[in-house]
Write a structure and sequence with these properties.
mainly beta, Jelly Rolls, four-stranded mixed beta sheet
Length: 270
């Protein structure tokens, strides 16, 4: 079947059935202005009264790409090189190479790991999916970018000062914690060698003040026993999780000889 459809007269030309090639154009029975299409080239021919005259149309089509005159031309995509480039591979094959971006390549941002060189400026804030890997904590919602080995660390502590004498027992202070964290260790340091026991109580701010019923140290209370400093990283039985907005109370259960005590909790912000 023909891929062409007879059209109504346009101007003085009357469309006739197409022919397979220009050589098949009829030599007789034509009227001036008759128009036919040669299907092999899509060229339109118009009868002048004595001959068929090419009036336009498909012409010869694309005859070469990048000077390659192969009849059948093939386009494909590759990733070679350091920048976008179109390579004529010969035999009618043309490769559009677009490499992945790297420290030396200009190219595509992929879903894989990439190292990209050059300063980049964002016109709006990027969105980062929260993750924790290889010691790095990223939380876009909280605006936090930290390392669990340094930036994410923090300390919570109190100094109990007896003013030159052994301090009395009881609650020595409260601390409000504005961020969530996990307690990693407790360190006690004193001005001289001596003994003391300190308990730590914790409640949410709405339940202030905490009491001994809210202890987080179980039976493993921070203790100095005839020593000037001690550190506990095991924290046996402790409640080590701290929520943002918790309040801690530090209660001196007992003390002898020493006059000043520093208690420091090492924490990792979460």
């Amino acid at each position: 079947m023909s891929n062409y459809v007879d059209l109504p007269a346009v101007g003085s030309a009357s469309w006739k059935d197409p022919v397979s090639t220009a050589a098949a154009l009829p030599a007789t029975g034509n009227s001036i202005g008759d128009a036919r299409v040669a299907k092999d080239t899509s060229i339109i021919y118009v009868w002048s009264g004595s001959a068929w005259v090419a009036a336009g149309g498909g012409g010869g089509g694309i005859t070469s790409i990048n000077a390659d005159t192969t009849a059948a031309q093939t386009l494909s995509v590759g990733t070679s090189g350091t920048d976008f480039a179109i390579v004529d591979a010969g035999g009618g094959s043309h490769v559009f190479n677009l490499p992945s971006a790297s420290s030396s390549n200009r190219g595509v941002i992929t879903t894989g790991s990439q190292t990209i060189a050059g300063a980049k400026t964002f016109s709006s804030a990027p969105t980062v999916t929260p993750f924790n890997t290889a010691g790095v904590v990223v939380n876009s919602a909280a605006g936090l970018l930290s390392s669990s080995t340094n930036i994410g660390l923090g300390t919570i502590g109190i100094t109990i000062d007896g003013g030159g004498v052994t301090p009395s027992t009881g609650v020595k202070g409260y601390i409000y914690i504005p961020y969530a964290c996990t307690i990693n260790s407790v360190t006690l340091m004193a001005d001289v060698s001596g003994s003391c026991v300190v308990d730590i109580w914790k409640v949410a701010y709405a339940s202030f003040p905490p009491t001994v019923a809210n202890t987080i140290t179980a039976s493993d209370l921070p203790t100095l026993s005839s020593q000037q400093n001690s550190q506990d990283t095991t924290l046996t039985g402790w409640t080590t999780s701290v929520s943002a907005g918790d309040v801690m109370a530090f209660n001196l259960n007992s003390a002898s000889t020493l006059t000043r005590i520093n208690l420091v909790l090492k924490v990792t912000k979460t």
